Amino acid sequence: MGFFSAIVGRGKSAPRGGRDNGTARGFGSGGRTGRTEARRDPDFTSNLAPEITPGLEADMEALFAAAPVKASPKSFATPLRPEPVDDRGVLRATGLAKSYGGRKVVRDASINVRRGEAVGLLGPNGAGKTTIFYMITGLVKADAGRIELDGHDVTHLPMYRRARLGVGYLPQEASIFRGLSVENNIRAVLEVVEPSRKERERQLDALLEEFRVTHVRKSPSIALSGGERRRVEIARALASRPTFMLLDEPFAGIDPIAVGDIQTLVRHLTQRGIGVLITDHNVRETLGLIDRAYIIHSGAVLMEGSPDEIVASEEVRRLYLGEEFRL
């Protein structure tokens, strides 16, 4: 199943298995999904590049469904409450809870991310951080709690509808359309969100230059290096104009040079005014680029603070980092 089909096609029941001893599995890990089918937007008329083959149809249907739209009361499953001024530009989760088979994996966890900052969601294996992250993305349904975007309740919205409102997500696994060239990966999204062909091409050129992939714009995506692929994935994600980006294990399985590349990309996102939430097991690399971190332990928030405050905490060192940890 393709990346976008996986987002839209996930059914009502939460995925089984995975990290945190019972949490949802990431894409490509073999987790079961529901049978809900992506629905084609009847108002959309495709003008996609010729490289898009019938084999990509399901992926593209889901991509069309995930296109951002202007928020309105009709976009939400539940009525909107008045938008508080201090909640503008904030992705907030409050009192999240989740159990699997009678075992509480997450209990009363609350976090927030503001636009223009990078926040880490860290903790030992099995602590519940992945489940919290997946509840915020919409991959896992929360048993209790509330998730808000700019003061609007999005708790019960599926993942693709959160994407429409500005919540972007990059999984650990490759999500690029391998059958397309680099430029057509990005153009596929722009054709959904930008009606003007001239403006689409201008934005395409700008994104290719911004992420330093102009030299491979005609190359097949399957031939890219790991760092190039990640830059193209982020450029494509930005084509849909998100206000928040959720990055799942961005440092997993990459070499030291690519680590620096990812750190630079995250800083670039925050400089654009995009809020970034990162969950990763590579603590040192993550603490080296974020503004704040939440340390999750036994399903709850153990501490929230700056990287220096996190490292200085005796309790965090005792339960997670170890006494010898240094930034």
UniProtKB/TrEMBL annotation:
Residues 91-323 form the ABC transporter domain. It holds the Pfam family ABC_tran. It is found in: Cell inner membrane; Cytoplasm. Residues 1-49 are annotated as: Disordered. InterPro entries: AAA+_ATPase (IPR003593), ABC_AA/LPS_Transport (IPR051120), ABC_transporter-like_ATP-bd (IPR003439), ABC_transporter-like_CS (IPR017871), BCA_ABC_TP_C (IPR032823), LPS_export_LptB (IPR030921), P-loop_NTPase (IPR027417). It is a peripheral membrane protein. Residues 34-43 have a biased composition (Basic and acidic residues). Part of the ABC transporter complex LptBFG involved in the translocation of lipopolysaccharide (LPS) from the inner membrane to the outer membrane. Probably responsible for energy coupling to the transport system. This is Lipopolysaccharide export system ATP-binding protein LptB. It comes from Ancylobacter novellus (strain ATCC 8093 / DSM 506 / JCM 20403 / CCM 1077 / IAM 12100 / NBRC 12443 / NCIMB 10456) (Starkeya novella).
